[in-house]
Design brief:
Helix content is 1%, strand content 33%. It has 402 residues and is an all-beta fold. The two termini are 23 Å apart.
């Protein structure tokens, strides 16, 4: 179908409706609008009618600096900035095999770096994140079920085409990335979305996070320990790890385990004194990173690390030749009640909290959910549920066409 406005008289005028936003001084509107369809093989043809099916990606391109968007509610184009004569716009309907019920899904697995996403279309998007669990060592030294599970967060947000987002997906492997506290059992890294890229621990990048799913704390040594509570990645607050330790019949308590983070502070380490590393340097959880313990004598990481998150969980302490569990990190969603956003003027040496949940950027989610790693949450493909996320983190962004 060709729509002609006014002076393109050599085209047949078949249909006219109010899609014009703008005006050419002292002249009538002057626009030619064409429609094309493109199949999954890239073959295009002129369409005599607007396709009724809504399983298309729709692109509008114009000359003369005009711009076009598609109104999904009215199922019609809107042309803006029409200021010049003989303007042409083409509306392209592209078939896409990734469309399911009017949605396009983009997924991100763990890699040890940022993953850039350039928003392809104006519209509504659903963001979902899963934090990583604590490290599952391949040598079998971790007590089964003692490592913390990752948390889940989700929210809807309207985004503008060509906006740049940066996904950092946490790991449960034996590397330090996105806040995974190091140790004999590493904590799990957080999974987050940022507006500023850079190294995972760059403060300006961390400050730009608008959504964070917390990682779980590291697990305990398989001998002389038993699980009371795992250090799962939390919602507003991380889960305190409570790993009971019995060693040479001298210890039988959970005070060696790390504590969960909050919205304004990292989790602290276990409060019991380390008997194996009496000269242990202790780093509590911080903004964006899980805590860890270090043996000053040989400069090695000891016990279990805290989980990554908005703030990271605390590390476990080393009783005897065993070790205890790390605490879970905390999660964050801009706009989620109870979250405490930081101020834009915050620095790494002075973090200022605003006492309200909205990120300073103005990116605010709605219809949000935040689920800690000890509760039921959607699995990655959305076909079922699981209790906490085990293994590496995961991220998914879904474009909601209508």
């Amino acid at each position: 179908m060709i729509i002609v406005y006014r002076s393109f008289a050599f085209f047949e005028e078949k249909l006219e409706f109010d899609i014009i936003k703008g005006q050419i001084p002292n002249q009538n509107y002057d626009l030619m609008l064409t429609f094309q369809t493109e199949d999954e093989n890239g073959n295009r043809k002129i369409s005599e009618t607007i396709p009724e099916e809504k399983d298309y990606i729709i692109d509008i391109t114009c000359n003369n600096d005009a711009t076009g968007t598609w109104n999904y509610e009215d199922w019609a184009p809107i042309i803006q900035n029409l200021t010049k004569t003989r303007t042409k716009c083409n509306v392209l309907f592209r078939k896409n095999s990734s469309l399911v019920d009017g949605k396009i899904v983009y997924s991100f697995n763990h890699v040890a770096s940022e993953q850039e996403f350039i928003v392809p279309y104006d519209g509504l998007y659903l963001l979902e994140l899963w934090g990583a669990s604590g490290h599952v060592r391949s040598d079998g030294k971790i007590l089964q079920n003692s490592f913390g599970r990752g948390a889940y967060v989700r929210g809807y947000i309207n985004l503008i085409k060509d906006t740049h987002l940066y996904f950092y997906v946490g790991t449960s492997n034996w590397i330090q990335f996105n806040g995974s506290g190091p140790g004999e059992a590493f904590g799990g890294g957080a999974t987050d979305v940022r507006l500023v890229n850079g190294n995972w621990n760059n403060f300006e990048s961390l400050k730009s996070r608008i959504m964070v799913a917390a990682g779980g704390g590291g697990g305990s040594f398989k001998t002389n320990t038993s699980v009371v509570t795992r250090g799962d990645g939390g919602g507003l607050t991380g889960i305190n790890s409570k790993i009971a330790v019995t060693y040479d019949n001298l210890y039988n308590n959970t005070n060696y385990s790390g504590y969960g983070a909050s919205q304004t502070a990292g989790g602290g380490p276990g409060t019991a004194r380390s008997t194996y590393d009496p000269k242990q340097a202790s780093m509590t959880g911080t903004f964006g990173a899980g805590g860890y313990g270090k043996n000053i004598k040989d400069n090695t990481y000891t016990s279990s690390g805290g989980g990554g998150g908005y703030y990271g969980g605390g590390h476990g302490v080393h009783p005897g030749s065993s070790w205890s569990g790390g605490g879970g990190g905390s999660s964050f969603i801009s706009g989620y009640p109870g979250c405490n956003a930081i101020a834009e003027n915050s620095t790494s040496s002075k973090i200022v909290h605003t006492g309200q949940p909205n990120h300073y950027s103005g990116y605010v989610f709605h219809d949000t959910k935040m689920i800690s790693g000890n509760l039921s949450m959607p699995n990655h493909d959305g076909t079922g549920n699981m209790t906490g996320n085990t293994g590496n983190g995961f991220a998914k962004i879904t474009y909601i066409l209508y």
